[in-house]
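seq as requested:
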Amino acid sequence: MTVGSRHRTLLSRLRPREDWIRLMAASGLAGKIRRVQESDEFDLGGQSRDQVFELAKAAFTDPLELKSMVKLTFVVGGGKQCRQKYGADLPKDFQQALDSIGFNSDSAACCELASAGTYKYQHDTSKNLLFVHVFPRVVCPAGDEDAEEGEEQAAQPQKRDPADVLAECETADFQRMVTANVVTYSSKKRLLDSLRAKLGRLDEAEQKMIAREEVDAELQKLYDTLSADGLKEKVKLMTAELQSSIDAGDLTSAERSQVLEQLGSKLSALQTELEKAEADGKPKLQAKLEEQKEKLKTTKASVSDLKPAGPRPLKYEAEIQKLHVRLTGLARLEKEAGGKYTLDQLKALGERPEMEEAMSIYQTRSRTWFESDEEFDERLQQCLARAPKKKAPAAGGYSAAPAANKSDGWSTVKKKR
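struct tokens:
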């Protein structure tokens, strides 16, 4: 079994029963999608935003059992003859629905395993239709061990650096993915620095070509893949995003200190320019610099007065907290039981490795793009600190497994044979 398929099995066994039924119900359009064996096309005419979000979750949250990649094409819009059939926001809504379950936009995606978990938007001018092509996550059918091994090896290249994905994608896709995955000031700053670095590398490649100097393969690939104008537009967008975070006061304590330091450096540099303009007798430039200085001072004062924002909750906070409570209870059980367990307790202890792996999966999926280890660890510790505390049971009465007529939100789904 591949790593991806094993992860899906673990999460499905630990997912609340009602959620499992909702996501995996093989009925309607979602059911048809999950039963495909080859590339196919589906029409989303008349679908609302809520419906396409539910469709994406039900059809694509878990991988499809296939021996090879398929391309699933969804018609999301068209010209005058069929415009009334599709909502104006349907293309954007469906792509956001895919983003919400971890899919990435990739204009270079194709019918290969390396493209699993991606999609791409297309405006087919010859047909006058709008399409979203989805390349689902896949696992080989049970029992096909050789194919599963090949799938696991082929799927390795699918993990791409988010900085490369964002640098290469179209501006509309860039804005959507940044909104969904780059959420803090620090992350936005790291993305901006990455975009500026790539822009500098493009300039380096261009200068070498002008001078007829040799360009190495990596630099050549960068030059062939990226657009300088596109990168400049993205740099402009991210600069505005950073300013929006400052204006909204959406800064943690560490980020506030970082911004204050940056503003202090800008003020010092501006003061030097101001003194030079004054010495050179340039009143117009001096007036302009004075205006910029006052704006910076005002911004610095407002940032100084900000109450730092707390770390953002994890995406899968509820699932992580439930697993944490269960695992903590099992650790306490082992300590207190002295090696004497009931059958239910032994069953619960036997599920611990799967719970621990599921915990790791949920943590990985809760990380945002460009988030440092320290930043994520702080968010994780706060998440665990907010987990509900179970009351200590009476001596000798501890039970790690829920009673038959009660539920703590977890259930085990038997494998189909």
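The longest helix spans residues 253-279.
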